[in-house]
Amino acid sequence: MTEQEVRRYLRKMSEQDSQTAFRDFYNMTYDRLFRIAYYYTHHEEWSQEIVLDAFMKLWEHRHQLLNITNIEDYCFILVKNTSLNYIDKEERRPTLSADALQEPTDQAISPEDNLISEELFARYVKALDRLPERCREVFIRIREEKQTYAQVAEELGISTKTVDAQLQKATIRLREMLLQ
C-alpha cells in the first residue's frame, strides 16, 4: 500500500462518494487493521467488530479524510482507540464476580513502557506491511497463527524448505526495518 494509492482512494471516496473506492481501500487495509485490533483485544470476534466500526467511522468522515496528513497513523490510532473503548465496554459488563477481579500488582506497566510498547507495535505493523506478500503471509501464518511449516506448505502449495526460506527472509527484513 503506497501513500499515492491511499490518496487516490480517499479522493474518490471524498469527492465522488465512491463505494467502489471504499471497498478497495477496505480490501487493502482490513488485514492490517485487524492485526492492530487483535493485538489489543486478543479476541478474533471483537477485532472483526472493531475494524468494521472503524471503517464505518471512516466512511462517515470520508469528506475530511483528505485533510489528514498521515492516514496510516490516523487509521492506527482510530483502531487502537476503538479497541480500547471496546475492551472497556466489555469489561464493564456484569459477568465478572468480585472474586474474579485481581488485585493490582507492584509490577504494573508504567505509562512510558506502555507508550514504548505501542510505538514498537506500530513500527512492527508498518514493517510487516512492507514485506513481500509471500514473506508476509508465511510469517503471519507461522508466527501469529501458530501454524506448522507443513500446514503452511500444504495450504500455499510450496515446499517446507520454501516456507523456511521465506520465514528467514521475513525475519531478517523485519529485524533490519525495526532497528533503523
Automatic annotation (TrEMBL):
UniProt cross-references to SUPFAM superfamilies, sorted A to Z: Sigma2 domain of RNA polymerase sigma factors, Sigma3 and sigma4 domains of RNA polymerase sigma factors
Keyword Amino-acid biosynthesis belongs to the record: no
Recorded family membership: Belongs to the sigma-70 factor family. ECF subfamily.
Native organism taxonomy: Bacteria, Pseudomonadati, Bacteroidota, Bacteroidia, Bacteroidales
InterPro entries (UniProt xref): RNA_pol_sigma-70-like (IPR039425), RNA_pol_sigma-70_dom (IPR014284), RNA_pol_sigma70_bacteroid (IPR014327), RNA_pol_sigma70_r2 (IPR007627), RNA_pol_sigma70_r4_t2 (IPR013249), RNA_pol_sigma_r2 (IPR013325), RNA_pol_sigma_r3/r4-like (IPR013324), WH-like_DNA-bd_sf (IPR036388)
Limits of the RNA polymerase sigma-70 region domain: 26-92
MF terms (GO), sorted A to Z: DNA binding; sigma factor activity
Record protein name field: RNA polymerase sigma-70 factor
Gene Ontology terms describing biological process: DNA-templated transcription initiation
Domain RNA polymerase sigma factor 70 region 4 type: 124-170
UniProt KW keywords: Sigma factor, Transcription, Transcription regulation
